[in-house]
């Protein structure tokens, strides 16, 4: 902050504000619902059931790449919801907090980071259901599970990075907001969510594809940590995805930081 | 140098799209032609310095740049040019209860609002009981009720109570004192005075000149974004009051984009006409005053009414009168009010009015739309002292001799 050299906000205060905003979003989420947090698991389960219906009754598929269809689909959806819900709320976060932004100063990044809280909590509930499914389908859990927090973190980096870009550019002109549903809807199908990369792994464009769509490597890495013996992509391909996710994260934050001082003039 | 706030020639430019309804726009033009923008300086070349413990009152008409200045000082927006140097912890109160979430309980909102205003969790916990006590007995009972069930009075009291317990070095306040009922206002003003008596620096925007005179040792008078005067409160206020004699009696806006207001309503026209008698030049206590208002209503199917306030130049509200609410559609809405002669006493008055939806939601408050003076007029009297009071009624007050016996 070149024009103001006050150290108004301490890091610990920032962290507290981040947590309290996150807590607000979480506790408000299911206010005045009878089922409460159970809604967090109803969504991924219904999505899975829909695809199960399609696969079993329409195309008569009962396993994908040698794994129970339920496990592949559910793990994919779990991953996708974590990414997509986080991405959506980060993208909308600045406009939704316009009242705060125009009345109080605090580091604006806090708004971006607190926006992923809800999707993270939903994810944890969904993960619990995954373990029940895994036991039912006799899928072993290996030590790879310890890598799960890393995948989750990188996925959230992707959500925040992409979300920050949309949030920064949609304050002045709202056009970019229209992209969000497109990414969420079609991204679901161009990423191996309800299938695996094994289906087109040998295609010549696959390398470029993992580079352009880092979610490919991330979702396969995600399954690798959850499904024992699942080993679809090489470490190299996963590293490419991690690298492009982190690049998008940094890019998003840089764009956000350069735009944040003028937000209030356009809100 | 022991200045705690130093503002050196800050300016803030906004760009507003120019309206040209005359040129019909083709679809292609609409998308590809760059809109022409009008530059508008909300704050221009403002400089001042404050020492530790100074209380600064910021006064000026609507659109003088007071709110923009406060936003720059609170770091909410960046100045286009210039530099602000503030040493110490700043708390700015541009609104009461900023960030309150309607679904959360009073208790949760105290923590939420406190954190947003820059308090640590520990600080809030330490002062929690004090905050609740300050907010009043009613709040204690409803501490675990969502604030959406609070009355607006309770909401505002809780909001102010939290702000009152901030402990900054520099406090920036935007007219948030004008909240709550009379009792609570007294309490808030008392709290402000208590804060003021400490070694705190306060920047205070207000229309209430009495409050500025009581609280502030320095005053900044802004006019159209420029500093009109900055100095000792007494001197600045005197000049401000005498400058107000230049009555503002008519405002008219041809283009909706330039008109004051917001996305819901914008002022089109407002005129105050005194019914002058004979060759009178300025209005006096005998004359009735007609106020005509036209505004653009930008939404269909709204249940609107106008609530008009007349203030004395010292800031006290003389009266508040409202139209009946009426179901109105998009377009221009007109209203007129006649204040009879022999109602207002001589003096300076300000007129503000707000457009209210469903009798409760203020869509926009047009502040200080008129600023006028009424001269004195007396016949058959030998006494020429200042007639006291804000009103000058001619009530029937018969006097008679009923007996000659003592």
CATH level 1 class label of the largest domain in chain B: Alpha Beta
By CATH's scheme, which homologous superfamily of the largest domain in chain B applies?
A: P-loop containing nucleotide triphosphate hydrolases
Q: Determine the CATH topology of the largest domain in chain B.
A: Rossmann fold
How many helical elements of chain B? 9
- Helix proportion of residues of chain A, in percent? 55-70%
Q: Would you count the extended β strands of chain A for me? A: 2
Strand fraction of chain B: 35-45%
Mean pLDDT of chain A: 88
Find the structural class of chain A using helix and strand composition. mainly alpha
Order of helices and strands of chain B: EHEEHEEHHHHEHEHEEHEEEEEEEEE
How much of the sequence of chain A is in beta strands?
under 5%
Name the structural class of chain B: alpha+beta
Q: How many separate structural domains of chain B? A: 2
* Helix segment tally of chain A: 12
Global geometry of chain A:
globular
Separation of termini of chain B? 77 Å
Principal-axes shape call of chain B? globular
Low-confidence stretches of chain A: 1-8
Considering residues with a beta carbon less than 8 A from a beta carbon on another chain, report the largest interface and each chain's count.
A-B, 30 and 35 residues
Secondary structure: helix percent of chain B: 10-25%
Order of strands side by side in the largest beta sheet of chain A?
A: 1-2
Q: How would you explain this protein's 3D organization?
A:
The complex is a heterodimer of chains A (267) and B (406). Chain A has 12 helices and 2 strands. With 267 residues, chain A is mostly helical. Chain A has a two-stranded antiparallel ribbon. In chain A, helix 2 (39-59) packs across helix 3 (69-96), helix 3 (69-96) runs antiparallel to helix 6 (117-136) and helix 3 (69-96) packs antiparallel against helix 8. The longest helix of chain A has 28 residues, at 69-96. Chain A is globular and about 55 Å long. Chain B is of the alpha+beta class and 406 residues long. Chain B starts with a strand and ends in a 32-residue tail after the last strand. In chain B, strand 6 (170-174), helix 7 (182-197) and strand 7 form a beta-alpha-beta unit. Helices cover 23% and strands 35% of the residues of chain B. Chain B has helices spanning 27-32, 66-73, 106-116, 121-135, 137-141, 152-164, 182-197, 209-215, 233-243; strands at residues 3-17, 37-51, 55-59, 81-86, 90-93, 170-174, 201-205, 218-223, 226-232, 250-252, 265-274, 289-297, 302-312, 317-322, 326-328, 331-339, 347-357, 361-374. In chain B, helix 3 packs across helix 6, helix 4 (121-135) crosses helix 6 (152-164) and helix 6 packs parallel to helix 7. In chain B, the strands form 4 sheets. Chain B has a 6-stranded mixed sheet with strand order 5-6-7-3-8-9, with helices on both faces. In chain B, strands 13, 14, 15, 17 and 18 form a 5-stranded antiparallel sheet that branches. Chain B folds into 2 domains: 3-243, P-loop containing nucleotide triphosphate hydrolases (Rossmann fold), CATH 3.40.50.300; 250-374, abc- transporter (atp binding component) like domain (Coagulation Factor XIII, Chain A, domain 1), CATH 2.70.50. The A-B interface holds A 1, 3-6, 8-9, 12-13, 16-17, 20-21, 24, 27-28, 31-32, 99-106, 261-262, 264-265 and B 14, 71, 74-79, 82-90, 92, 94-95, 98-99, 101, 103-104, 108, 111-112, 115-118, 120-121, 146.
């Amino acid at each position: 902050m070149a024009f103001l050299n006050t150290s108004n906000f301490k890091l610990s205060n920032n962290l507290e504000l981040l947590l309290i905003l996150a807590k607000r979003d979480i506790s408000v989420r299911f206010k005045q619902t009878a089922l409460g947090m159970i809604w967090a698991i109803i969504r991924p389960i219904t999505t899975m059931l829909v695809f199960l219906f399609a696969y079993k009754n329409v195309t008569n598929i009962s396993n994908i790449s040698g794994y129970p269809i339920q496990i592949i689909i559910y793990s994919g959806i779990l991953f996708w919801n974590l990414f997509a819900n986080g991405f959506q709320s980060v993208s909308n976060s600045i406009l939704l907090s316009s009242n705060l932004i125009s009345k109080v100063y605090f580091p604006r990044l806090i708004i971006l980071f607190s926006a992923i809280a809800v999707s993270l909590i939903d994810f944890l509930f969904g993960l619990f259901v995954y373990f029940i499914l895994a036991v039912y389908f006799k899928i072993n859990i290996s030590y790879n599970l310890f890598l799960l927090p890393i995948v989750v973190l990188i996925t959230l980096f992707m959500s925040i990075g992409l979300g920050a870009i949309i949030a920064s550019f949609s304050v002045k002109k709202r056009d970019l907001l229209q992209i969000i549903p497109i990414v969420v809807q079609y991204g679901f199908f161009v990423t191996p969510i309800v299938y695996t990369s094994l289906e087109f792994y040998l295609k010549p464009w696959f390398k470029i594809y993992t580079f352009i769509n880092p979610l490919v490597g991330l979702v396969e890495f995600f399954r690798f940590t959850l499904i024992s013996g699942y080993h679809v992509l090489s470490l190299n391909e996963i590293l490419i995805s991690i690298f492009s996710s982190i690049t998008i994260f940094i890019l998003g934050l840089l764009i956000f930081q350069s735009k944040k001082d003028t937000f209030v003039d356009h809100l | 140098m022991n200045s705690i706030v130093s503002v050196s020639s800050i300016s803030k430019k906004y760009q507003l799209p120019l309206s040209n309804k005359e040129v019909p726009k083709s679809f292609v033009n609409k998308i590809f032609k760059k809109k022409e923008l009008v530059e508008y300086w909300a704050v221009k070349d403002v400089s001042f310095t404050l020492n530790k413990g100074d209380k600064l009152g910021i006064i000026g008409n609507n659109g003088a740049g007071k709110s923009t200045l406060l936003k720059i000082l609170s770091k909410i927006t960046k100045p286009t040019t210039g530099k602000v140097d503030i040493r110490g912890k700043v708390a700015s109160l541009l609104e009461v209860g900023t960030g309150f979430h309607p679904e959360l309980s009073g208790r949760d909102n105290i923590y939420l609002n406190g954190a947003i205003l820059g308090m640590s969790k520990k600080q809030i916990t330490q002062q929690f009981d004090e905050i609740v006590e300050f907010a009043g007995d009613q709040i204690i009972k409803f501490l675990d009720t969502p604030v959406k069930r609070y009355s607006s009075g309770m909401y505002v009291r809780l909001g102010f109570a939290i702000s009152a317990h901030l402990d900054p070095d520099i406090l920036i306040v935007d007219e948030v004192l004008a909240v709550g009922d009379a009792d609570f206002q007294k309490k808030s003003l008392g709290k402000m005075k208590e804060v003021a008596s400490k070694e705190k620096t306060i920047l205070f925007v207000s229309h209430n000149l009495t409050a500025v005179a009581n609280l502030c040792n320095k005053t900044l008078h802004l006019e159209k974004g420029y500093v009109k005067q900055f100095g000792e409160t007494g001197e600045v206020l005197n000049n401000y009051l005498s400058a107000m004699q230049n009555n503002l009696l008519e405002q008219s806006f041809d283009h909706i984009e330039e008109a004051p207001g917001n996305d819901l309503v914008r002022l089109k026209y407002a005129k105050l006409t005194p019914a002058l008698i004979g060759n009178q030049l300025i209005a006096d206590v005998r004359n009735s005053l007609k106020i005509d208002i036209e505004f653009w209503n930008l939404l269909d199917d709204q249940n609107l009414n106008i609530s008009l306030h007349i203030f004395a130049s010292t800031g006290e509200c003389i009266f508040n009168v409202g139209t009946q609410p009426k179901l109105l559609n998009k377009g221009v809405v007109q209203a007129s009010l006649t204040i009879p002669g022999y109602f207002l006493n001589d003096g300076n008055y300000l007129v503000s009015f707000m457009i209210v939806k469903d009798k409760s939601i203020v869509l926009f408050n047009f502040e200080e739309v008129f600023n006028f003076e009424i001269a004195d007029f007396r016949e058959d009297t030998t006494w020429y002292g200042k007639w006291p009071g804000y009103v000058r009624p001619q009530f029937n007050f018969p006097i008679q001799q009923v007996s000659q016996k003592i």
